[in-house]
């Protein structure tokens, strides 16, 4: 009950402690699903809160049926944290229909009563057709959650609305009670004109060497050409070209995919996967990677089916996560299914493929790759401890594992974490280097936010910093020298743990 009783400071501290606990579950879809599907399991061993009349389980906390304070605000804080995991977001939107409920509650904040008076913490704002919007802490929090769960994008691609009442009211005009929002809170369209024209050194290199020999010498020159272009956005066609040429380096390697590219009629998508397809298409349209086309949904659905069959999934009874990497390839290929087929074949032969595409990890040898994944996490924690000891200690004190955080971000291809341009650079760097470079990339992410992490830790808000504002201002080009230093320092002791077989192209 400390969440809603006691002094304001005690309530704040109790809320921070509660949210830290919730954030530790965010990275685990199956854990969240278990908490919601078995509400009586904790009745004899303690509950999320200690006494009535408040909710005693996570499922009760997330009913979202009423906007009665104070538990409603706690439930919104909880929902905001949980939905930072895109798989959990899809799961919750399917199981508890949180978007529908939030929109309903937002509509209840609209009144035609012009005599309603403002109180402390509440603002009344006039709208069209003699409507008046009641704006308070909860309506602003609901507004932010709706925007954050509908619009995909990195720090520069979407702007999340504030959750604090603005004294001049300028930040409150966008409240809505239907989807899509009347105006998308996104900067992607504004940025299109900043794209450079003409070819980069890297693009020219790929074109000039397309028909040549692809060996270790070619790879070395490709890295050098990329370093001359890393401050410029990578075009999708360039990344696709790189995938096709890099695959020639692994022409003697056994592909991870041995099944023919066909779809079986018996395969049925989970409702969460259908929602994920809609999310991906919206992102592609916003970035102008896709054109308005009735075939987009059908084509991506076909590719998700294809993913199931190629990777020979055993049919799971429950949703295990959306294939964000396949969706990323779909956007890169402009929605062209045949081009996606070619990219899938190209990338499946690369040593780094299972680290980029988690769903691929079980296609060849689940046991072996699980061992590699455990070793990847172990090595990442060791590198962070040695290279960034202050950040490592801060994470440990907050009960956070940088490996588990990065694993979730990698699983969703850094959507909502990095801007699309940086996601493309991440893929290029990964393809041009061995799997150990993925480790150094993960370390560079923490290095970038270390000052903010340390400041947030001193205020008891470390999880909030990681979940809600993780990678603002991150550019791979700024970190490439650091990653190369780590490679020289640790490659000999790290790389062989991450390779499935003897495959050590420089």
TrEMBL record:
Gene3D superfamilies in the cross-refs: Ypt/Rab-GAP domain of gyp1p, domain 3
Domain of life of the native organism: Eukaryota
InterPro entries with a match to the protein in the record: BROMI_C (IPR055392), Rab-GAP_TBC_sf (IPR035969)
Residue ranges annotated for the BROMI C-terminal Rab TBC-like domain, each copy included: 83-497
Record protein name field: BROMI C-terminal Rab TBC-like domain-containing protein
Annotated source species: Zootermopsis nevadensis (Dampwood termite)
């Amino acid at each position: 009950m400390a969440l809603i009783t006691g002094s304001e400071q005690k309530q704040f501290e109790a809320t921070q402690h509660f949210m830290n606990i919730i954030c530790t579950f965010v990275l685990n879809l199956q854990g969240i699903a278990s908490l919601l599907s078995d509400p009586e399991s904790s009745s004899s061993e303690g509950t999320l809160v200690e006494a009535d009349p408040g909710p005693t389980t996570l499922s009760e906390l997330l009913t979202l049926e009423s906007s009665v304070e104070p538990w409603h605000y706690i439930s919104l804080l909880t929902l905001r944290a949980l939905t930072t995991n895109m798989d959990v977001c899809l799961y919750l939107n399917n199981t508890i229909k949180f978007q529908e409920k939030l929109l309903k509650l937002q509509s209840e904040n609209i009144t035609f009563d012009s005599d309603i008076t403002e109180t402390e913490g509440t603002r009344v704002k006039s709208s069209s057709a003699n409507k008046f919007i009641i704006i308070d802490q909860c309506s602003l929090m609901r507004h932010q959650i709706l925007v954050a769960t509908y619009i995909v994008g990195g720090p520069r691609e979407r702007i999340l609305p504030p959750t604090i009442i603005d004294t001049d009211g300028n930040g409150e005009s966008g409240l809505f009670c239907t989807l899509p929002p009347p105006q998308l809170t996104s900067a992607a369209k504004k940025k299109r004109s900043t794209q450079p024209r003409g070819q980069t050194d890297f693009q020219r290199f790929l074109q000039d060497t397309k028909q040549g020999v692809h060996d270790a010498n070619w790879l070395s020159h490709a890295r050098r050409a990329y370093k001359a272009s890393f401050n410029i956005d990578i075009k999708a066609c360039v990344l696709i070209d790189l995938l096709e040429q890099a695959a020639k380096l692994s022409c003697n390697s056994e592909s991870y995919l041995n099944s023919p590219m066909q779809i079986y009629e018996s395969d049925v998508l989970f409702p969460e996967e259908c929602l994920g397809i809609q999310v991906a298409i919206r992102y592609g349209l916003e970035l102008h990677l896709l054109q308005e086309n009735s075939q987009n949904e059908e084509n991506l659905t076909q590719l998700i089916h294809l993913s199931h069959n190629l990777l020979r999934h055993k049919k799971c009874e429950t949703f295990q996560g959306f294939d964000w990497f396949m969706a990323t390839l779909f956007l890169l290929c402009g929605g062209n299914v045949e081009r996606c087929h070619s990219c899938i074949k190209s990338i499946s032969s690369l040593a780094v493929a299972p680290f980029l595409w988690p769903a691929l990890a079980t296609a060849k040898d689940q046991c072996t790759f699980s061992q590699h994944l455990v070793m990847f996490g172990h090595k990442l924690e060791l590198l962070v401890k040695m290279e960034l000891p202050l950040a490592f200690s801060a994470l440990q004190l907050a009960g956070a594992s940088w490996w588990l955080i990065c694993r979730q971000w990698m699983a969703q291809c850094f959507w909502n974490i990095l801007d699309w341009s940086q996601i493309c650079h991440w893929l290029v760097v990964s393809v041009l280097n061995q799997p150990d470079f993925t480790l150094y990339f993960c370390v560079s992410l923490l290095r970038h936010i270390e000052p903010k992490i340390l400041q947030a830790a001193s205020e008891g808000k470390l999880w909030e910093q990681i979940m809600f504002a993780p990678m603002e201002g991150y550019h791979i080009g700024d970190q490439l020298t650091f990653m190369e230093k780590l490679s020289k320092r640790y490659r000999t002791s790290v790389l062989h743990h991450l390779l499935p077989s003897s495959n050590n192209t420089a």
